[in-house]
UniProtKB/TrEMBL annotation:
Protein name: NAD-dependent epimerase/dehydratase domain-containing protein
Pfam name, any one: Epimerase
Gene3D superfamilies reported for this sequence: NAD(P)-binding Rossmann-like Domain
Domain NAD-dependent epimerase/dehydratase: 9-194
UniProt entry keywords in alphabetical sequence: NADP, Oxidoreductase
Family matches, as InterPro entries: Epimerase_deHydtase, NAD(P)-bd_dom_sf, NAD(P)_dehydrat-like
Protein's UniProt keywords contain tRNA processing: no
GO function terms (MF aspect): oxidoreductase activity, acting on the CH-OH group of donors, NAD or NADP as acceptor
Superkingdom classification of source: Eukaryota
């Protein structure tokens, strides 16, 4: 069976991807950045000996080119997502430079891997949604994967997560095109995980996202299914905006606020505010693909109509 690499496999997304790929019979190179092997195996909770034989673990530093090449050796695909170094977990201008260097190294290594057939690059919806106030086209239609966040706007308002994701993704696309690497990109909304807190860098500017109708979230299971579908479907191309819920009414916003800051000072429900903000963001490209290649995905799509 095909060998694929997941980097960073120690992230929440990476660990779940490794598990699902093993379940599907792939041999998986798990490239770890912030975890040791024993901690990763505990997180993975994989007790099947046959699957464990298909798991190969690498310690991979995105700034150590040779460690990336080692992890990719013999693989036909890479699932890549960036996690800040454990000693610098908050996003700032420095992390943007770090993420760009990491993306450059990884795509360069992919170009030098003869067996590499496809790279699934995980970016963010924040690389799409910011800085379109004066764009007449975006004012009359939904934002989707054709749009890019404005770098100067992000820098002006210190939207470091958006700036990092935008510049890193553009760097990856430039290298992929220059080196002939077959790359597709997934741009997920805010990932809903049990450890999500108010300090998550995606949430910078959340009030503006809400008012603009572009505050989108994604469940982990849905995001993993999207990655696998985008990889396994041979015809995929370009970018895929990925979310299965939009926060565009007061009830949802309050639920999220209470989840992020469960304390007596959390916002109270406003029964009089029944506004529903018009949705101005579209994931039609991804949904069409997923419905075609995974009929059971309707169960996960149902979350798009539900509250958090």
């Amino acid at each position: 069976m095909t060998s694929v690499c997941v980097m960073d496999a120690s992230s929440c997304l990476g660990t779940r991807l490794v598990k699902c790929l093993l379940d599907r019979g792939y041999t998986v190179h798990a490239a770890l950045q912030n975890y040791g092997e024993s901690l990763f195996l505990n997180e993975l909770e994989c007790d099947d000996d046959d699957k464990r034989k298909k798991l190969k673990i690498f310690q991979s530093d995105p700034f150590d080119y040779h460690s990336i090449v080692d992890a990719l050796k013999g693989c036909s695909a890479l699932f890549y997502s960036f996690e800040p170094p454990s000693d610098h977990s908050t996003y700032d201008e420095y992390i943007g430079e770090v993420e760009v260097r990491a993306a450059h190294n990884v795509l360069e290594a992919c170009a030098q891997t003869d067996t590499m057939e496809k790279v699934v690059f995980t970016s963010s919806a924040t690389a799409i949604i910011w800085g379109h106030e004066n764009d007449q086209n975006s004012a009359s239609m939904d934002l989707d994967e054709r749009y890019w966040s404005d770098i100067n706007f992000c820098r002006k308002f210190k939207l470091w997560h958006a700036l990092s994701k935008t510049v890193a993704e553009k760097t990856a696309w430039a290298l992929a095109m220059d080196k002939g690497v077959n790359m597709v990109c997934i741009n997920p909304g805010l990932l809903m995980t049990p450890d999500l807190t108010i300090t998550n860098p995606y949430l910078k500017g959340s009030a503006e996202m809400y008012e603009d109708g572009v505050f989108v979230t994604v469940d982990l299971d849905f995001l993993v299914e999207a990655h696998i579908c985008v990889y396994e479907e041979i015809s995929t191309y370009g970018r895929y905006l990925c979310f299965n819920h939009i926060i565009n009414q007061t009830e949802d916003a309050i639920k999220l606020a209470n989840m992020l800051s469960p304390s007596p000072s959390s916002p109270q429900s406003s029964e009089n505010d029944t506004r529903i903000i018009q949705q101005r963001i579209s994931n039609k490209k991804l949904i069409k693909l997923m419905v075609e290649c995974k009929p059971h995905i309707n169960d996960l799509l149902a979350n798009q109509e539900e509250s958090i």
